[in-house]
Amino acid sequence: MKKKIKKINAAILIIGNEILSGRTQDKNVAFISNWLNTKCGISVNEVRIIPDVEKVIVKNIQILSKKFNYVFTTGGIGPTHDDITAKSISKAFKVKYEYHKEAYAILEKYYGKKKFNDGRKKMAKMPMGSKLIYNPSSAAPGFITKNIISLPGVPSILNSMIENCKKYLIKGIKIHSNTISLYTVESNISKQLGLIQKKYKKFVDIGSYPFFRLGKIGVAIVTRSTSLKKLKSVNIELIKLIKKKKIVILKI
Amino acid sequence: MKKKIKKINAAILIIGNEILSGRTQDKNVAFISNWLNTKCGISVNEVRIIPDVEKVIVKNIQILSKKFNYVFTTGGIGPTHDDITAKSISKAFKVKYEYHKEAYAILEKYYGKKKFNDGRKKMAKMPMGSKLIYNPSSAAPGFITKNIISLPGVPSILNSMIENCKKYLIKGIKIHSNTISLYTVESNISKQLGLIQKKYKKFVDIGSYPFFRLGKIGVAIVTRSTSLKKLKSVNIELIKLIKKKKIVILKI
């Protein structure tokens, strides 16, 4: 399955009222995106956060699974009534929602026959044909259904499972990146930065991000490219610009 | 403009490669959503995070502006080449992208005529007919265009501007919420919780969220409703269930 091909992309679908309402700060987007970028050469091109509502989940799964190579879902695979991710994915693809034999066996062994109640059994129900993503923290597995990878919402559990997703993913081409942090304001360099971006339009993405550190205003210039050579050329031009403007470099 | 009507909703559109790539942890979703909930009675029903790509921004603005009462955008309103939110909103609504006179005057005064360069002037360009959202931190205003409210991406600046959005918003009905934190596992209460949710389906949303604290596993049960009376009834039933199961309450 693994072969090096260009530009593989993904979307992340965060399922959960607790994130939408602002009660809980999401941490999974940054973690998954970073991991996909650095370990798999996969770019996340869209994220959506949606409520625990079946028809909303179904529609988003259908749209995103067509639009992107992979869709990572987080949340909604636990034992309670508001955990409806697996059922909704079954509906989205019109496949049966049924017990996965291996998942059932894993959970039964983990909890013991006596404590394997209905709520826990629910965590073994998945769209027909799903493959398991093993969970070294708390047993209940994630699963992959077509191009949808379903993971839990609790960050520490998700983090412990992420490496187990790797075998299902086709690797993309590595994206190199470089950051230069400066003590300056964006508008001091915005014109020249725009010209450099224009020159390297097809090869390098240049992002400019203001920040505050120890009471000073700064700008981080982030360059990203699949070509290490083009990335270096851009960074040489950036350093020239910075020297010409006599800007203090904080970090390179 | 202000009148009490039921269920006003909103979407948040986070514009920025730095959030998508995982380089920067988003903090604006939780902040805006919390503020809308508690101060305006407005629920956030969807969040999208998208790249700094014009056609993607245009399409998302068109879709979300039809689907929700309000759309809050964050990011892309600074002076650099990758700041294309205002231009994209103009294209989405097919209106002119032009200098806003008052914004121009504010910025010119703030920077002084000599230092008011092209990058800074760009921050005064907006979709025709936009109204300003004043910025007490760094002068460059946000703006509202039809039902789209555009704010900056830097959390501290956004936070300082949020109260200035209020006058443009129709208030919704207040959503009350209550949280009970327990030392238990979800599957211990999932069945009964499901039955209570079923009984109050139309009136109260019950969410169940596992957590880890000091090495112990817990569950936060969050109830939300526009009716304080129904919320109280549900919570009485929850307390009964908790006592029956002899579960330790951590916080109520």
What's the gist of this structure?
Two copies of one chain form a homodimer. With 252 residues, chain A is of the alpha/beta class. Chain A contains nine helices and twelve strands.
Please describe the structure with a list of short key phrases separated by commas or semicolons.
homodimer; 252 residues; alpha/beta; Molybdenum Cofactor Biosythetic Enzyme, Chain A; Alpha-Beta Plaits; 2 domains; 6-stranded mixed sheet; 4-stranded antiparallel sheet; 37% helix
CA distance, first residue to last residue of chain A: 38 Å
What is the β-strand count of chain A?
Answer: 12
Beta-strand share of residues of chain A: 25-35%
CATH superfamily of the largest domain in chain A: MoaB/Mog-like domain
Q: The CATH topology of the largest domain in chain A is what?
A: Molybdenum Cofactor Biosythetic Enzyme, Chain A
Overall domain count of chain A: 2
Largest two-chain interface: A-B, 64 and 63 residues
Give a written overview of the molecule.
2 copies of one chain form a homodimer. Chain A is α/β, with parallel strands linked by helices and 252 residues long. Chain A has 2 domains: 161 residues, Molybdenum Cofactor Biosythetic Enzyme, Chain A; 76 residues, Alpha-Beta Plaits. Chain A is 37% helix and 30% strand. Chain A has 9 helices and 12 strands. Chains A and B meet through helix 1, helix 2, strand 2, helix 6 and helix 8 of A and helix 1, helix 2, strand 2, helix 6 and helix 8 of B.
